[in-house]
Specification:
It is a single chain. The chain has helices at residues 4-14, 30-38, 49-58, 76-79, 92-104, 128-136, 138-141, 161-180, 200-205, 215-218; strands spanning 20-24, 43-46, 64-67, 85-89, 109-115, 146-153, 191-193, 210-213. The protein is built from ten helices and eight strands. It has a single domain, classed as TIM Barrel (Alpha-Beta Barrel), CATH 3.20.20. It is globular and about 50 Å long. Strands 7-6-5-4-3-2-1-8 form an eight-stranded parallel sheet.
């Protein structure tokens, strides 16, 4: 039987202290999340709204839930009351809805803007130009209930580590650029979420301070 607590402990030993670990619990039963929570881990990631809501209702309220999948604007209302961090924000429309639902729930919703860095067109994310356009917009500047905390990106799924490294390096460059322009003197813009089970070590080497890891902790996920 897999010892997920041991897996988590081993992984934490391999990553620097400044790197936050989001344990990706998608498709895994709630009792596994509870086991790691009781061992002291608080950050868990889901990529489907329905599964996220079900687990949040069943599990301890202290858990910090991360929405790491593609989020449709019409589903924001279901997670707005509790979500800790939304990773994949890729449009002004979605920011608008997060701000609206944040206002309704009287809480600021933290999010990361997703940047398209991969060669694969199937992956979501903003181009560098779209990113600048949103951050420069008057509408975005007036938003009070959504807070951009940093950037997120997913590298190309490939065995070529140099391709992956270059993509992560590009995201780090964009992150640093925004820190010195749009977010100058705003320490709250501090999260660079990149790296998963297969490439987290490369991501950390290139500046990631948040990784999203599932299979190395919970074992292979179901394909259904």
């Amino acid at each position: 039987m897999m010892n997920i607590k041991a897996n988590l402990e081993q992984l934490k030993k391999r990553i620097p202290e400044h790197v936050d670990l989001v344990a990706v619990s998608k498709t895994k039963p709630a009792h596994m999340v509870r086991e790691l929570f009781e061992a002291g881990h608080l950050d868990f990631g889901e990529n489907k709204v329905q599964e996220l809501v079900e687990k949040q209702q069943e599990l301890p309220q202290e858990i910090r839930w991360h929405m790491i999948g593609h989020l449709q604007s019409n589903k924001v209302k279901y997670i707005a009351p509790f979500v800790h961090l939304v990773h994949g924000v890729d449009s002004l429309k979605l920011l608008r809805m997060l701000d609206k639902e944040g206002r309704k729930n009287e809480r600021q919703i933290n999010c990361l803007l997703q940047v398209h860095i991969a060669k694969e067109t199937s992956k979501f994310g903003l181009s560098e130009e779209e990113l600048d356009s949103i951050l420069d917009s008057e509408e975005f500047r007036k938003m009070e209930f959504v807070k951009v905390r940093g950037l997120m990106g997913m590298a190309t799924f490939t065995d070529n580590s140099e391709v992956v490294r270059e993509e992560f390096r590009n995201l780090k460059r964009i992150f640093e650029k925004l820190k010195s322009t749009h977010y100058r003197s705003q320490p709250g813009f501090s999260v660079l979420s990149m790296g998963m089970s297969d490439d987290y070590q490369l991501a950390i080497e290139e500046g990631s301070n948040m990784i999203r890891v599932g299979s190395l902790v919970f074992g292979p996920r179901k394909t259904t």
